[in-house]
TrEMBL record:
Organism: Providencia rettgeri
UniProt record similarity statement: Belongs to the carbon-nitrogen hydrolase superfamily. Nitrilase family.
An example Gene Ontology molecular-function term: aliphatic nitrilase activity
Record keywords: Hydrolase
UniProt xrefs under SUPFAM superfamilies: Carbon-nitrogen hydrolase
Enzyme class label: hydrolase
Domain CN hydrolase: 7-282
Gene expressing this chain: nitA
Superkingdom to which the source organism belongs: Bacteria
InterPro entries: C-N_Hydrolase, C-N_Hydrolase_sf, Nitrilase/CN_hydratase_CS, Nitrilases_CHs
Coiled-coil segments on the chain, per record: none
Tagged with keyword Hydrolase: yes
Protein's name according to its UniProt entry: Aliphatic nitrilase
Active site location: E47
PROSITE patterns: CN_HYDROLASE, NITRIL_CHT_1
Amino acid sequence: MLNLQTFKAAAVQAAPVFLDTNATVDKVCRLIEEAADNGAKLVAFPEVFISGYPYWSWVMNPIDGSPWFEKLCKSAIEVPGPEIQKIAQAAARHHINVVIGVNERNPNGIATLYNTLVTISDEGRILGRHRKLVPTWAEKLTWANGDASSLKVHQTSIGPLGALACGENTNTLARFALLAQGELVHIASYIALPVAPKDYDMAEAIRLRASAHCFEGKVFTIVSCSTVSEEIMDAMSATHPEAREILARPNSAFSGIIGPDGRVVGEPLVDKEGIVYGEIDLNRCIQPRQMHDITGHYNRFDIFDLQVNRRPLTAARFHGNGQEDEALNVFPESGESFGEREI
C-alpha cells in the first residue's frame, strides 16, 4: 500500500562565518536545533555553507584571488570527517534530516576541492555526498568536476530525497536522472550571486528554476540560498573597494518551498536571513502525474535513451593483490561504497 509522508520542511537562508569552519559548524548545529524545535523533519542549508563561497573569483583577477584560494583550502573539510560527524550527531539528536553544502577537500590532494552536498538522515547516518558536476563560470578557478557516482536519490524517513547544487538545477539531464529514480523531494542549494550581469535577477532565476523542476517532475523543491554578510563584504573590499557595491546588490538570494504545481508554498525569503518553513504533503505529487509523468507514461523511452556513467572519476585505479584498505572506499556511517580507491 502506498503511504506518502506529510511533514514540515525548513530552508535556511543565511551566511556562514566566513572561512571559519568550526564557528560555522556550531552555527549549523544551532540552526538544526531551531528548525527541529519548530517541527521540521527536513532542513536544507545553502551551497558550500561550510565555510564560504569564493566571491574573490568574481571581484578580483586570479593573481589577487590566489591567497584567498589558499585560505579556502585550509578551511575545507573531508567527508567523512569530524565536522560532518558533529552535524550528523545534531541531526540524530533532533531527529531531523539534513542536507548541507560544504567545500570538500580531496583527502589525497590538498588543493583539490569539490563543491559538495552531504545528505544526512534523521538517525545521523551519512546517506551520501554529491559533488557538483560542473562548476559554474568563475567557479572553475576553485572546484574540480564531480562525477555521477553519487547522483542518487536517497530513501529517507520523509520520502525519496535528491539534491543538486546551484547551476546544476539548470541541467535538464541531471534533474531527469534524479526524477527517474523516484525523487519526490528535491533540495536546490544556492549562493547569493550579486555579481551576475546587471539585467539578471538572481532571486527570480532561482525561483524559476525550482518551479520548472517541480512542475515538470511533479515534486516538491526546498530551495536554500546563502546571503552575503557584512563580514564577507568587508573581507573582499579591504583590498578591492569596488567589491562592496557589487556584493550589496539586491535580489540576489531566494529561499523557499515550491509545490508540484510550480507555486511557492508559504512565504519565501529574498535577501534577508532567516528560516523558511512549509508543509509538504507528498500525496499532492500523484494527481498531476495523470496528465504528465515524464518518467513514466508521458515519455517515449523507445526514442530517448539516457545513460548515466556512475563510475567514480579517480586520478588512478589500482588492480591486483595489494594491501589496499577497503575501508577507504566506504562511508563508515552508511556503508555506501564509492568504488575504486581515489588517489
